[in-house]
Amino acid sequence: MSSIKTQLQQIVDNLCKQHESYDLEFKEAQTSLPDSFWETYSSFANTAGGYILLGIRENPWGISGVKNPDKILKDLCNSANNKTVVNHNLLENQNLQVHTVGDKKIISVYIPELAEEKKPLYLKGNPLRAYIRIHEGDYKITESDLKRFSRNSQPALDSELLDEYILEDLDMDSVLSFKNLLHVRYPSRNYLAMDNLDFLQTIGAYQIDRKDGRRVKMTVACLLFFGKYNAIRQKFPYFHLEYLNHRNCQGKERWSDRVCTGDLEYPELNVFSFFQLLREKLRATINDKFELDQNSERKSSAELQDALREALANMLIHADYFDGETDIKVTVEDLYYTFMNPGKMLVSESQFFLGGRTNPRNTTLITFFRYMGVSERAGTGGTTLLNFAKINKFRAPEIETTLAYTGLKLWIAAPLDSHPEFDAKEQLVYEFLQNHRQGVAVSDLETATELTKYQIRKILNKFIEQEWVTKTGRAKATRYYCTPSIIERADIADKVRLSLMRQ
User: Which of 28, 193, 235, 270 could disulfide-link to 57, CB 3.0 to 4.6 Å?
Assistant: First the structure.
């Protein structure tokens, strides 16, 4: 059985090298496709793609095999082309493979993620019979999810023109502050000489409605960026911006500093005033001691300022303001910052961190930020965060995105320091793994740490379960590695790209 599992693991490893997605699902299919195949097909297409392996029983686990692979593949392709079964066929010949494990045949089917403008992929002609992937399960979407798919397929919703809003619905302090800011950056354009409406039309905050007698109307982006709080809430009932600083709390204090829409101290918070206020508050959280670490290596506070500014702007630019289930929220912790917003990130994690491609949800809002000198180059925000961690040898930034929300964690601690929950034995093991990225055996850890084999295996199993460590090989060839961070994966991608350029 162990040799069969090893063969299967090698097949899975080879498959996962072909695509960015690593999600995997086993299904028994000796003579026909199970009904649950199409649920997983839908969930993979609507989430981040993945592999389905046919011919594997999960409970109890075992390789049952596929009796007639050619028939299964033919049935699969016929059904994928049948609109009464599924609304999109994502199958390609190179993504359908038959493998031999022991004396059994299994089939691997790769389902790529469907383009955002085509989602959701649904079953039996019913858009509510679509599924999304959550951890290792397939879940039918809700009506709220269906609306999210619809919004994700229509970029630039912030360019919608509003009939019922007028200039008095805007916070003039915000408009004048923005006008002054642009005057300093572009003095030759004479923004200060313009009246407010002309200025707002010049920057695209007001636009001509060509379907309504060429009337000039406020955009959704203008309302969000410059609007009075109550005016914004009438269009976006769940509009909520929040900042919490949890550092230096004493006694029963839940935070040392807070900014929140609806608070009388900040009566007219909009996207612009929130950004300006938080840029200063986040700058104040940077300790002067950040300049040098214990080895007198450079730790630039300017780099952290840039990273925090980009993370803050990214959160506000890509938020789905029509979604009321997740607040827009920034938190400050001892070892990291978090940035949370409603809405799925519309590029993959690797695309976000490696740069070069952007798919902004709010195209007018991003224009306003670029006028301010923020996010001036498309698709470079994630690269700024990645380079910040790389230069300072910090734990890599982490991003989690679902259909409902996106959360970013920006670390200001080295990998080992970012785990204060480790006991002394766990620290020894983790530090040794960090210093030996080529992989180590249990015997290496025994020699280096003087821990028992039982203690080491217990710690390694915990690390593997938390996905901090990856295990490869079997028996005496078993090796343990720190799971590659996004920084290391980016380095590998850069080397591959350079190698291809030289050929």
Answer: 28
